[in-house]
Write a structure and sequence with these properties.
Structural class: mainly beta
Number of strands: 12
Shape: globular
Number of helices: 0
Strand content: over 45%
Distance between the termini: 11 Å
Helix content: under 10%
Radius of gyration: 18 Å
Order of helices and strands: EEEEEEEEEEEE
Oligomer: single chain
Length: about 170
Amino acid sequence: VQMGNHGTTTFLGDELIASDFADNSTFDNDEGEWDAYDPTSGSVATTAEFSSNKLVVTCSTDNHAEGAQLPVAHVGDGTDTSIVAGRTYRISMKLRDTNTSSPIVYYGLGGTNSAGNSVATSETTYTRDVVCANATGNLLAFTSSGTAHTFSIDDVSVKEVGVASGWTTA
């Protein structure tokens, strides 16, 4: 007697930071489209600069979100509709705390933010899943501690998380 068994498999889609925009992922030429992220009005105290094939983010002592952002137009196929509201995306970045303040870094995409990671002083890859609320929110890496700190970003990856479902006779 054969009995059908329901099975699901989680898989990751293609890399959404396109290879023709590799500087937005690996920063090999100390360039890319990343900018400082500081959503408050007035002067921006945060800096995001390319140095030694990394993106180096320096945050002030202001007690609000600060970090770096990549316009959503550079995630996916280069259009504002590269990400889809309601879908899950896996974001990973290699981070390093460069001044021993152990910042908690959060990721954001499509108007939704992830849980945070306490960043180590050695370069470590951190991964979080985000369910997008919209298709227009930029890719973010930010902190909101109110403590001055600097962290570096490298090897950025964004992939859609999917689930395949079906019946097997195994």
